[in-house]
Amino acid sequence: MTLQDDALALPLPPAPSIYHPTPRLAELRANRPVAEVTFPDGSTGWLVTRYADVRQVLIDPRFSRAAAAGSAASDTGIALVATDSILGMDPPEHTRLRRLVAGAFTARRVEELRPKVTALVDTLLTDVAARPRPVDLVEHFSLPLPVRVICELLGVPPEDQHVFHAWSDTIMSDAGGDPAEIRAAMGNLAVYFGKLIADKRATPADDLMTALIAARGNQDRLTEQELVNLCFGLLIAGHETTANQINMFLLTLLHFPEEYARLAGSPELVPQAVEELMRFVQLGEGAGLPRVTTEAVDLSGVTIPAGAVVLTSMAAANRDESVFADADRLDLSREITQHLGFGAGAHHCLGAQLARMELQEALRGLLRHLPDLRIAVPDAELRFKTGMIVRSLQSLPVTW
Amino acid sequence: MWNVAVSPACIGSGVCAGSAPGHFAIGADGRSHPPATPVDPDDAILGAAASCPMEAITVTDADTGTHVDPFI
Ligand code: HEM
Ligand code: HEM
Ligand code: SF4
């Protein structure tokens, strides 16, 4: 039983270390696994921290993204967009879109792309190794890698990729950023995609955008607006997250040098290491995107009423001792586990297999090209873009 | 009627259980299982099969054994 005046104020205080979530989450997981919270605007909701409960919220259709998309909790820059996107829909509308794109992101299709990604990693890191030190890894490796991969998949011409990146950067930057600028950038991107779609319609190519255009032509399974939003969403969802994970994986490995040495000595551990790092590194400071209950639901003995905003903490769930023994320890040889770093349920990351493969090839490439890599500045000098769920490094100066 | 099966390639993403809740549930082993099969045809099952990242779901006609899922 929680009382209104007992409600926990969000956001939680920032974590004392970038390598671990705030200790408040462990307290909540132990004592108030389904905690009533108040948001900065005074509205209320619930924060869920145990692995089993988080998984349930993400999978159980009584927790609706579509209902959340219209709610006050989503009234900020980002969540607004996710509203019009696949991430703001419930099945069956959600399934109609998801089944159209899923085929391009299956484990099998992703394996076919691996040689290209390995070659791209080699090209980027050969260039990095030839630069005067220190080198900013964000600019020269962790951002260009996922941007080029998703642009290649979608069929965005390489010569357009830089303009593109400037817009998406504006959109993804600070929640406190200038709304007018964000809207302008979104407008530019939408116009750009509209034009690209017209080009592909005139001259079909062997890429995902062409395939989606065909799906649209075929019994109108996709509206024009949905087509633009999908391309847009794929682009945005596909690069900042992956770039961030590359940066955070590297920072984390170098912070636990015995684990890094172990990986360097046994590169066959890379796939396991990627899963363990996905578990260990939290994507952002806060919780994932909100859900809203469509009816009252009991969770860990607490009744969440209908119409309530529910947040899940993937970071807390991924450190749940009842699932991951010695959960606060990074152990790259841990047996592969179902961490929640890619979410779960209908909205389980569409790009999960692609991201896994990119992360594996990025780690292998770094070990191969720059085995003596070091961060060139102390942690205190690392600058994160603030105000976002996706915590993102502005730059990562490295040397060797 | 359709037979629904999930192969050991399943990684427990829960995409199927989230998209076709009556037809798939994640078991204690962390993998998806159809609670009942064979079942009446339902497009949500094909949607889940098409959305599975591991292509782990097969749907066959219970009488003829022919595939009705997207990956034949
Ligand atoms: C390491 C990198 C990545 C991480 C950590 C990540 C994480 C996530 C998470 C946690 C969700 C679920 C959000 C929720 O349910 O609230 C999600 C959804 C999604 N992700 Fe990713 N992602 C990554 C890379 C990618 C890539 C490379 C792509 C695309 C090419 C992508 C596309 C998507 C899409 C489209 C969704 C929404 C799916 C839906 O609503 O059906 N992601 N991602
Ligand atoms: C299909 C469309 C999209 C997908 C799949 C997607 C996916 C995601 C995911 C997985 C997260 C992390 C949330 C978590 O931790 O669970 C996220 C956060 C975020 N996304 Fe998106 N996104 C989409 C569209 C957009 C667009 C178009 C924008 C630009 C306005 C945007 C801006 C952001 C921002 C700023 C955050 C940080 C969240 C916050 O501060 O509240 N997203 N998105
Ligand atoms: S969608 Fe596929 S991988 Fe995910 S739980 Fe269902 S069967 Fe398993």
Automatic annotation (TrEMBL), chain A:
Q: Which residues form a coiled coil?
A: none
Organismal lineage: Bacteria, Bacillati, Actinomycetota, Actinomycetes, Micromonosporales
Query: Which cofactors?
Result: heme
Q: Which organism is it from?
A: Asanoa siamensis
The yes or no answer to whether the keyword Metal-binding is present is yes
Q: Write down what this protein is called.
A: Cytochrome P450
SUPFAM superfamilies according to UniProt: Cytochrome P450
Keywords, in A-Z order: Heme, Iron, Metal-binding, Monooxygenase, Oxidoreductase
In the record, the note on similarity to other proteins reads: Belongs to the cytochrome P450 family.
Instruction: Tell me which positions the record assigns to the signal sequence.
Output: none
By its UniProt entry, which InterPro entries does this protein fall under? Cyt_P450 (IPR001128), Cyt_P450_B (IPR002397), Cyt_P450_CS (IPR017972), Cyt_P450_sf (IPR036396)
TrEMBL record, chain B:
In terms of Pfam families, this protein maps to:
Fer4_13
Taxonomically, the superkingdom here is: Bacteria
Designated name of the protein: Ferredoxin
What species was this sequence derived from? Asanoa siamensis
